[in-house]
Each structure stands twice: as structure tokens, then as C-alpha cells.
Amino acid sequence: MIRLQNLTLQRGPLRLLEGAELTLHPGQKAGLVGANGAGKSSLFALLRGEIGPDAGDCQLPADWRIAHMRQEVDTLERQAVDYVLDGDVELRRVQGELAIAEAAHDGAAVARLHTELDNLDGYTADARARKLLAGLGFSNEQMEKRVGDFSGGWRMRLNLAQALMCPSDLLLLDEPTNHLDLDAILWLESWLKGYPGTLLLISHDRDFLDAVVDHVVHLEQRKLTLYRGGYSAFERTRAERLAQQQQAYERQQAQRAHMESFIRRFKAKASKARQAQSRIKALEKLEELAPAHVDSPFDFRFREADKVSSPLLDLAEGRLGYGDKAVLEKVKLQLAPGARIGLLGPNGAGKSTLIKTLAGDLPPLGGRLTRGENLVVGYFAQHQLDALDAKASPLLHLQRIAPGEREQTLRDFLGGFDFRGDRCDEPVLNFSGGEKARLALALIAWGKPNLLLLDEPTNHLDLEMRLALTMALQDFEGAVLVVSHDRHLLKSTTDEFLLVADGRVQDFDGDLDDYARWLVDYRARQAPVASSESAADKTDKRAQRQAAAALRQQLAPHKREAEKLEKELGALHEKLAGIETRLADSALYESARKDELRDLLAEQARLKGREAELEEAWLNALEILESLQRELEAAQQ
After folding, report:
1. Which of 194, 221, 336, 607 is deepest in the core (most CB within 10 A)?
2. Regarding beta strands 29-34 and 340-344, do their DSSP bridges make them parallel or antiparallel, or are they unpaired?
3. Does the structure show a pLDDT above 80 at 270?
């Protein structure tokens, strides 16, 4: 187990933990939450042994294997799949020693190392690494690319895959969902649920925490408090404690009144739509949990627009893409004041392309895009953070867009985004990603937009800021179009969903649970198929018969291959059985026969390695065969 006793941890002049206590048992999955800068990452460094406690004890089992998600990449020339395999350090050691032994024709060492490799599941390692990469959104082509060919966000995905590849008793993940889309997050949830070891997870995604963890460790006021259950249970328990304080209670009532008013207005406008119902439930849940955040440093609103057009924006027969390459065709979208739309769709389907076109960053390749006379767009995307002036302070950024406003008014406004005192006057150069995202949102909120286009606005934001953003969006009177992997934000601030997939933008009649099921079906449809029929051909009976005939023709060689592999496996099993019979002879272990024993062990190791290769090839052949058979059955219907 992990046991921290009377622990004090200090980084420079800042004391992060003082007299802290914590016990985690093997197999527990805990989320580590707390304000930015409270010491969560430092606690991870302590558990990894990179730093020591300043006082007290940090005890972990000596034989525990610890895996963690690295924050840097230093091997840019490695192939992506090899980089992931590097996460299994013991596997790489055995493979390296095996190569040396084989070059030296050292039969005994080769036999021993093949046994070690088998114990490490080394013969399936490449397939397992590729499965991890596929789950995190990498295509087969991307798996063969150099690490240096990927952007920063995709390199973080590689680091995550490397951590998951490493066999471990303790897995430490620091913000693993920051650079993932919703598809990859759902896959990661499923993977972590099946992880047998102890998990400690830092995340600002409340739905992700609820799905994965069974305990929450709260770092507050230099202490660690362990709560049973997921993040929602933690909020409820903490809210009950805070509600006992009179000052907290008064602020809680003000928040509750605001949210009740919003819920009443929302219920009056929409009571039948499925998404509306789920949103009302989310808001009612949020009302219950809001007291847990009475000490949040964030409190802001989007300033009300001076004028509004209706519609704000109208796109007809839109052809959207880059250069001469269309990503989306025949897009029809009209945004009216008060519209609240969430964009769903697999990675790379065109969600960001749509938002960039609406924001004016990309010209439409075709169709008609009409903007309302009084349209004021507030656009948030990751490149907005890079566009900030590194040498300018938050106050100076705001003064540039509001030159006639009183300085105190601007400082008060920035205070709602937790830029207070000297922090208002410090240059952005050394700001964290979360601080830059807050400043970008502050600049948008000041601009009195009547249309918000938000592309992953919660990246880098902590839980308190995400809650404040959710409440500000609920109070916003204009239109909202948002792409986000934060399901809580989507459920709490949108009324309807649009699905971006297969080059089209269509209404999605369902909630996020329905979308998760749709994704499973979509991935199944995207699996390689032998038929190249077009949609029109599928309605043609003659084309169906031709396709079925072609599939039967393709079935034959795969069937022969599977039978050949099965036959070869049978012969190999007989050889292994013969070797095992000989190894059972006690006389073989006499010193005079040591050479014979060594050769026999080496042959056994070689055959076991070949057995693993054949079994994997046979299973792959069966999968292809079954896939083709399903296609044949579908074509014959």
C-alpha cells in the first residue's frame, strides 16, 4: 500500500504539505484534486522517488513497478510504435540481451532469454502497442511515423501510450485527457477501468473522474483528505461540511437562487427535447453540488451584447475545407440568438474546420455564408493562446481593447478570472497554459459577443474555472457553438447536438450516452472491409451479387492461410511435446549430457517463440476471415 505519515513537503520557500496523512490500498483508483499550484505534481514526483520528504514518511512497497506519463519527449527520431514499446523497460532489456546472445551464438543464454521474453508476453508486445495507439486515435500510417513528425498534443498521446504500455503496480497519470478528443477519452476510461493495479490520477474532467476512480484525494491547506466515491460524491461530502460555515452558507444561497432562476427559464422554453431533459437534470445536479465550490476564486459573466441580429449567421450549401480539399459538403446551418449547440464527431471529421469557417479563419470553398449586420463573434481556439503578447500583462491586454475604460474597472473585471494584485501587471511570458486560457476567455467576455464559437475551451482549465465557465455560459444570452471533450460542460450548456461525420453535418437525435454507442458502431463500420461498393451500388441487386462473388473469391486464400497456419501449429505442438518428454528424463540432467540439455532447451525456446508467432498470425487470419464472412452475409441479404 501507499502510506504517507506526518508528511511535510516543501519546494523552495513554498510549503506544499505539512503533517499530511494518506493511505491507499492496492488496487484502489484515486483522483488527486486541488487548486493549481497546491502541490499535486510535486506529490507525484515524491511517489516516483525524484524528491524526498522534508519531514515524515513516504512508504511504498519496495517491489512495486511505477509507471507515469512523461511530460517531455526526447527521442524524436524513434518510430511511434517503437517509442511506445520503449515504455516496457524490462522487455527492451531482454530484447537487447537476446540480440547479443544470438550474435554470440550463446545457446544457453538464448534459451534463458526466450523464456524471459515469453514470461513478459514479449511476442505480443508489438500488437499490444498498436492496439493502445489505435485506441488513442492513431491510424496505422501514423504508427510508422517518427515521433518528431507529430505536434505537441499528439506527442503527449504517445507519452500516454508509453505509460500504459509499461507493466506497473502503480500508475501515475497527470492530466491524461488534456490532449484527447471525446473518442479517445471514452476508450481510455474503458482501459483504466480494467487496469488491475493502483491508480493515482490528476484530472480536471469531472465525468472522467466519476467514471474511473473510487476515491478522491483532496489537497487543500497543505493537508490530504481522502473521500470515498467519485468526484460527484466528493463534492457532495465537501459541500455538507462547508455549508456548516455561515459565510459559505450565505454565498451558497446566492448561487442556488441564480441557478434556480435559470432552470425555471430554461424549463419554460424547452421541456420535450431529449437533450433539454438531460440538461435540466445536469443543472439540477449542478445546483446541488455548487456549494462545494463556494471558495472558488472565479466569478465572471460575458458582458451583454449591445445589438443582436437574427439570424446571427446563415450557412447554405457550404463546402468547407483547406485549399482545394473539401472536408465537409452541403453544410446547412443557421444560428439564431439563444441557440446552444454542441458539435460531436470523430477525430478529424471536420468539427474544427466548421468552427474556423464560421469564425472567418477559413474561407468557404463553396456555398453561401451570410453574417448578420450586428454579429459579434467571440472565438476561442488553442491558437488564441499563442496570439497573446508575451511581453504584455493581462491589464495591458485589456487596456488595448478598452482604451477609454477606467483602470479600476478593468482590474475588477480581471479579478473574476483570478488575476489580482501584482498578477494583473505581470507579463504573460511565464504564465501557465491555464492562465493563458483564462486571459483569452477574459478578452472574449469583455468584447460583448452575441455568438460564442468555442473549440475545446476547457483545455488547461482546472475544475473551479470549468465550473465558473459553465455558469457564465448558462447565463449568456447569445448563441453558443462548442466543441469540447468535457461532457459535463456539454450536458450543462447545450440544448442540441450536431454530428460531424462522413463529410456531412447533421442533427444528432440523442444524448452523450447515445453518442458513445454511436461511436462504437462507427468504429466497427470504419474497420477495413474488402468491398468497395458505393452507396448507390448497394441498392443494385446485380452489384450485390458481384460484390458477394468477389468476397467469396477473397475468402478462399484467407481460409487456406488459416488452415495452413493451424496445420503448422499442430506439427509444432507435436515437436514441443516430444521435447518436453525428453526433458522429463532425469538422466538428461547429468553433467555428461549438459550440452545435449543446453541444445534441447534452446530448441524448446525457439519453438515456443515460433509458436507465439504462429498463434498470433493464426488469430489475425481468423479475424480477417470472420470479417469477410460477415461482409459476405451482409452482401447476400
Report:
1. 607
2. unpaired
3. no
Most confident of 254-258, 265-269, 498-502, 615-619: 498-502
Q: What is the pLDDT of residues 401-429, one digit of tens each?
A: 999 899 999 999 999 998 998 889 999 98
Helix (H) or strand (E) holding 94: helix 89-103
Which 3 state secondary structure label does DSSP give 348?
Answer: coil
316's torsion region: left (phi>0), alpha (psi -120 to 50) or beta?
beta
Find the radius of gyration of the CA atoms of the chain: 29
Q: Which residues 6+ apart lie within 8 Å of 592 measured at CB?
A: none
- What number of residues does the chain have? 637
Cα(467)–Cα(475) distance, integer angstroms: 13
pLDDT in tens, 14-34: 888 888 899 999 999 999 998
C-alpha cell at 625: 476471415
pLDDT tens, position by position, 555-609:
667 777 777 887 887 888 888 888 888 877 777 778 788 888 888 888 888 888 8
Q: Is 263 exposed, middle or buried (0-12, 13-18, 19+ CB in 10 A)?
A: middle
Average pLDDT, integer, range 84-88: 91
In terms of Cα–Cα distance, which of 490, 491, 463 is closest to 285? Answer: 491
